[in-house]
Specification:
- The chain has two helices and no strands.
- With 52 residues, the protein is an all-alpha fold.
- The protein has a domain of 36 residues.
- The longest helix is centred in the first third of the chain and has 31 residues.
- It is rod-shaped, with a radius of gyration of 15 Å.
Length: 52
């Protein structure tokens, strides 16, 4: 039981870390493309950074 809980916790932490890194990368990509920092923050917050 403890092993299963540990695996679920580790999986959740990995998922959160990957999501954070993906958002950070998208923000850097938008800033590099010349977008304003305020617009980038909104795009990341509302998950619109991946749209073309």
């Amino acid at each position: 039981m403890m092993t299963e809980g540990s695996l679920v916790t580790i999986a959740a932490l990995v998922w959160l870390a990957l999501r954070y890194l993906e958002q950070a990368e998208a923000g850097q990509r938008l800033i590099g493309a010349g977008a304003e920092p305020g617009s980038v923050a909104r795009a990341i917050r509302y998950e619109r950074a991946h749209r073309s």
